[in-house]
Amino acid sequence: MKIISLNIRGVGGALKRNYIRDLINREQVDMVCLQETKCSEFSREKVCLLWGTNEVEWVENKALNNAGGVLTMWSNKSFQLSKFVNGRNYTVVEGFWKRENGAHVTIVNIYSSGSLREKKELWNEVGGFRQGQLSKAWCIIGDFNSIRRQEERKSVMSNSNYSREIKGFNDFIESSKLVDIPLVGRKYTWFKPNSLVKSRIDRVLVSKEWLDFWPNSQQFVLSRSISDHCAVILKEVSVDWGPKPFRCLDVWQRDNGFKEFVRSSWSSYKVVGREIFVFKEKLKKLKADLKVWNKEVFGDVNQTSKVIQQRLDELDLYDDEDGLDESEREERKSLFAKLSVSKSKQEAILFQKARQSWIKQGDLNTKFFHSSVKWRRARNQLHGIFVNNKWSDNKEEVKNKVCELFEERFARNDAYQARLDKVEFNSISEVDNKMLIGDFSEEEVKAAIWGCDSSKSPDLDGFNFGFIKSCWDILKKDVVSEVKDFAGYGSWPRGSNA
From CA 255, how far away is CA 69, in angstroms rounded? Predict the structure, then answer.
């Protein structure tokens, strides 16, 4: 899925037509949304000339008196139009995405005027369409001529106040249940010729249902060329940055065999060395064993739910036709109980991944948690970096630059170390000194752990405090020994955070 949006500022010239055609060919896009075409009519010949082939369909919203105008074009191999609506400076197209997943989507190509009154009218009209399709996949793309926050506009008039515009635009986005997906590339999308005034007024807004189809959707701002606007491209990008980190799932603790598995596994590990090294190596071995246990014993809860649901559907069909015998009725009763357990596990996993600590688990918020997980992933994903003022999304180059950044950040610099040679400090009593340097007791270590949120991880190894608390009788000897070891030596063995 690739969609390009560009305020072209008039599509009549050969230079601009060639630029659009080259852009379509270079990016291999499925749909193009042009704003401010300043064209009263598009013939098939003109549209094919813009697209570069005759495998194209389109909907136009004609310019009035050589002003405005919106054109939406798409490859007939990618998108199948069901219906469209033309409003004042916007076009709504609804149809099916032929490629990838057959998604039923609504895409709005929008061009807003500079008048706040007309912007509000536009937001109300488009918002009205959206309210009737809140459960469907939506994408609103184009030139909104509005910003979401003050820092999205840079002007020579530093005291300019756009609070009414910002509030109105954000209210429209919130009420329409849309999200502003992560931006990659340039910070601004529109520039005055002198570059002293610049704004981010072109953007892509999608619904969470859209992210269900394309969870890795990103909007990229391309370099400015023949218009004072930059082209914005919406596409799904999935980069394999390497193995995914281990995460100890809280729902495992509900399994009757989980704790016994941890106990037998933990006691079987034979490691020699400092206590802190022993503890680290045991966690490393347990992590590998839990991955196997999760796959072979705990199982894929999503697949389990599907299998149970399919069997229930079969039994319901038999019941409709000939009725069920006693054994089949018992089987259906058992399957309903298993499905309830499986759905509960699904929700618990999504709850943990979504990290929504303000809402209680157990209220069947599975759809909400699922959307939250996808939005968190889209927001937190590393898309690329600037290298020597040039954007790069090359996997190896990004990895190397990130590594260099942290090596530089944590490198020792003796020139800037503080010196305390002549500073006099207050002294503590001998009793307090003995208390501070004395060994930690098991009660102190346990109190410190129980004082931490169970969902938080004290390390990067993926084991949270909830796991340590639930398996305290198994782990406590090693945990206390590890704490005492660190207190005595004051150092961690290499790889403790892996």
Answer: 61
Q: What's the mean pLDDT in 456-483? A: 83
pLDDT given for residue 375 in this prediction:
58
Backbone angles phi and psi of 379, in degrees to 5: -70, -35
Whether 340 and 308 have beta carbons less than 8 Å apart is answered as no
pLDDT of 408 reads 82
CA 222 to chain centre: 21
Q: Which domains does the chain show, CATH number per domain?
A: 2-236 (3.60.10.10)
Q: pLDDT tens for residues 318-363?
A: 777 777 788 888 888 888 887 777 777 766 666 666 554 444 444 4
Most confident of 307-311, 453-457, 464-468: 464-468
Residue type, 353: K
CA distance 152 to 229: 14
**Residue 160 pLDDT grade (very low, low, confident, very high; cuts 50, 70, 90):** low
Confidence class for position 227, pLDDT limits 50, 70, 90: confident
Rounded to the nearest integer, the mean pLDDT of the chain is: 83
Q: Indicate if the pLDDT at residue 270 is higher than 80.
A: yes
In SS3 terms, the chain reads as CEEEEEECCCCCCHHHHHHHHHHHHHHCCCEEEEECCCCCCCCHHHHHHHHCCCCEEEEEECCECCECCEEEEEECCCEEEEEEEEECCEEEEEEEECCCCCCEEEEEEEECCCCHHHHHHHHHHHHHHHHCCCCCEEEEEEECCCCCCHHHEECCCCCCCCHHHHHHHHHHHHHCCEEECCEEECCCCEECCCCCCEECCEEEEEEHHHHHHCCCEEEEECCCCCCCECCEEEEECCCCCCCCCCCCCHHHHHCCCHHHHHHHHHHHCCCCCCHHHHHHHHHHHHHHHHHHHHHHHHCCHHHHHHHHHHHHHHHHHHHHHCCCCHHHHHHHHHHHHHHHHHHHHHHHHHHHHHCCCCCCCCCCCHHHHHHHHHHHHHHHCCCCEEECCEEECCHHHHHHHHHHHHHHHCCCCHHHCCCCCCCCCCCCCHHHHHHHHCCCCHHHHHHHHHCCCCCCCCCCCCCCHHHHHHCHHHHHHHHHHHHHHHHHHCCCCCCCCC
Residues written for the chain = 498
Position 361 scores a pLDDT of 46
pLDDT at position 363 is 47
